[in-house]
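Homework-ish question, so no full write-ups if that breaks the rules, but can someone show me the predicted structure for this set?
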Amino acid sequence: KNEVEQSPQNLTAQEGEFITINCSYSVGISALHWLQQHPGGGIVSLFMLSSGKKKHGRLIATINIQEKHSSLHITASHPRDSAVYICAVSGDSNYQLIWGAGTKLIIKP
Amino acid sequence: KAGVTQTPRYLIKTRGQQVTLSCSPISGHRSVSWYQQTPGQGLQFLFEYFSETQRNKGNFPGRFSGRQFSNSRSEMNVSTLELGDSALYLCASSFISSRNTEAFFGQGTRLTVV
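A: Not a homework solution, just the prediction itself:
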């Protein structure tokens, strides 16, 4: 079993829909990161959080430390949101990031 | 301020050759981490440098090495290239070497070994 599990693996939705991507982890963490990767490779850090909720524009990230679960929400989705969204955690015993497999999101116009 | 810069963006090498990739972190950042991304294995940690010292290392063979210079720029080197080394190599910089520090990623170097 992977230490960081994301669901769904693939998600196709219509423009305007509310999107939720989930991340569960099994290790102790000091922080959880949500990242976005567009075709071509570059990765952009969306959020880093260790408790509660953060919001940036149409993106919202929440984390429940007790349940070891985080969600990334996209409101009023747009085709430009199409990308791979990756959840990664910073373990509480080392510096490296432990990565989820990613969720490929396609938003159709 | 300028983001993380990786050069080159694309590279084609033949088996047995060696390759050097470069990463210039955001100005003021002292920590640089390297990751390999392949379709089969996903993102895997290679190593992290902070103030010219390797702080952490992933499970990669000795053919993979790196270093960091006094200006925080980092290079990674892969010797005796194998076909399986074909991947996107990503570099991330952060201000300090800490588990709670946000990392900023470069665009990556796509290496193809033929």
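Now go work out the reasoning yourself. Hint: Chain B touches chain A at residues 33, 35, 37, 42-45, 48, 55-56, 58, 88, 90, 92, 97-100, 102-108, 110 (CB under 8 Å).
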